[in-house]
């Protein structure tokens, strides 16, 4: 059972945050171990497993990027992709700036570089946002859109590593 099914939500890139939170709290009350103290050991184990699934599902679906990754993993075709070489060329300047910053670290330089990286992340999301919003909840996911999402997530992960490398290394 998918996390969306667990909460009786239609699979979507964008979830109704209020409905998600309401479903989480309802499941939390239903599966809280303290509510099943008198149950037999097998029922307690089942409740504990459901309580854990409730926490995992909520943590995943409430976070936009975790939700995208979850959708790719569970609804996408199993296609391993390489990061776009054109993207790597476009980010070469930022990568060089990160290496320079590592040799001569300043807080101002770190903040400036992280702002550039955040701008790149935002531009990448803007490129796919229309496709994400066009998807109607409950329909099968379009594999072309999922490929765009997977590409976005790989590029974002690369940029996140660059941002981490901006921080002062001891």
Q: Taking all residues together, what is the mean pLDDT?
A: 91
Count of helix runs: 8
β-sheet strand percentage? under 5%
Distance between the termini: 45 Å
Number-wise, the strands total 0
- Which oligomerization state do the chains in this entry correspond to? single chain
Question: Which spans have pLDDT < 50 for at least 5 consecutive residues?
Answer: none
Instruction: Estimate nothing, just give the exact number of structural domains.
Output: 2
Structural class: mainly alpha
What's the SSE pattern?
HHHHHHHH
Main β-sheet: number of strands, strand sense, barrel status?
none
Helical fraction equals: over 70%
- Global shape: globular
Radius of gyration: 21 Å
């Amino acid at each position: 059972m998918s996390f969306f099914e667990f909460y009786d939500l239609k699979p979507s890139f964008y979830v109704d945050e209020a409905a998600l939170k309401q479903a989480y709290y309802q499941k939390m009350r239903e599966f809280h171990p303290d509510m099943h103290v008198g149950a037999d050991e097998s029922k307690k184990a089942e409740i504990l497993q459901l309580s854990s699934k409730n926490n995992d599902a909520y943590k995943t679906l409430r976070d936009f990027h975790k939700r995208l990754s979850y959708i790719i993993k569970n609804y996408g075709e199993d296609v391993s992709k390489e990061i776009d070489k054109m993207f790597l060329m476009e980010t070469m300047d930022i990568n060089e700036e990160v290496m320079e910053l590592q040799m001569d670290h300043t807080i101002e330089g770190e903040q400036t570089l992280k702002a550039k990286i955040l701008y790149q992340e935002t531009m990448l999301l803007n490129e796919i946002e229309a496709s994400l919003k066009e998807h109607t909840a409950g329909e099968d996911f379009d594999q072309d859109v999922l490929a765009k999402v997977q590409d976005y997530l790989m590029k974002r992960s690369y940029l996140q590593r660059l941002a981490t490398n901006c921080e002062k290394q001891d």
